[in-house]
Specification:
The protein is mainly beta. The protein has two helices and 15 strands.
């Protein structure tokens, strides 16, 4: 159990990095140029469910690294780690990746006695279409189309299906009454194949109980996700926060006995101090 908790903590640190990255590039949207790279560290607080559909909320306060890289082909920013394959003024094709934290079944009533959910790694192509951009490039509306294959992070990785998460992404800086602050909004549906949904929401007969009948999850719609992020960059530090609303209404697995809450809020807050940055500056209009 101690080893599992250690892995859980390590994965949540990775998730904390995701928060720092999630708002980092928004702070540069209002600028025409920004440092090629930035390094720092800080602290973050999170509140979110054990997994999508869980009725148990977890809170964490963790140290976080802060890293932004704005290279021509490799980027680490609000959309995670990406390798650019093709780019034009309105179209970007990248390879993107994401990490998801584990969940220890012994700590979750709905999954008691079931195998733990391993931390997972997702990777795949992402097509970004710029639908609108302000003349000063401080505001933009994009359609993001990531398609990723998922694997568990363990000694012998297990393929756990595919995930498709198309979403509209609006970035805006220096809005009226919010000078110096940058706002990002994302909204879109999620879809998964049978293997992906079976991993999280299926119940084998060996683990069925009176309150948790056997269940075979199918492919299809996996709910909606809405995210609001705000951030502000100061000369020596950065602050950011996000609020995410998830709805599983209409999801193909919504009647799984492991879905205990079909809608919920998740939130996070981070403060980081910038210790170093590149003297080289690059455009931030993409």
């Amino acid at each position: 159990m101690d080893h599992t908790r250690e892995n859980t903590l390590r994965s949540f640190r990775t998730l904390s990095l995701g928060l720092a990255l999630a708002c980092a590039c928004a702070s540069a949207m209002a600028e025409k140029t920004a440092p090629l790279w930035e390094l720092g560290a800080g602290v973050a607080a999170f509140s979110f469910p054990a997994y999508r559909g869980s009725d148990e909320t977890k809170q964490f306060v963790l140290p976080v690294p802060y890293f932004v890289y704005r290279g021509k082909f490799l980027k680490a920013d609000r959309d995670g780690l990406r390798a650019r394959l093709f780019a034009s003024d309105h179209v970007n094709l990248t390879v993107s990746a994401a990490l998801s934290p584990p969940a220890t079944s012994d700590d979750i009533r709905a999954r008691a006695g079931m195998p733990d959910l391993r931390a997972s790694f997702e990777v795949g192509p992402q097509l970004d279409l710029t639908l609108w951009r302000a003349e000063d490039r401080g505001r933009s509306l994009k359609l993001l189309l990531p398609l990723r294959t998922a694997y568990t992070l363990e000694r012998s990785p297990q393929h756990i299906g595919w995930v498709f998460h198309p979403k509209l992404n609006l970035d805006a800086g220096d809005l009226p009454g919010l000078r110096g602050w940058n706002v990002g909004v994302q909204a879109g549906p999620l879809f998964g194949d049978r293997r992906q949904h079976a991993y999280y929401y299926g119940v084998d007969t060996a683990f069925a109980t009176a309150d948790r009948p056997a269940y075979a999850a199918g492919a299809g719609f996996a709910g909606m996700q809405y995210l609001l992020g705000v951030s502000r960059r100061y000369p020596s530090h950065w602050v950011g926060a996000f609020l995410r609303y998830d709805s599983l209404s209409g999801a193909s697995f919504a009647d799984s006995p492991l879905v205990r809450d079909r809608s919920y809020l998740a939130a996070g807050l981070a403060v980081t101090w910038i210790f170093g940055q590149s003297a080289t500056r690059v455009p931030t209009d993409d």
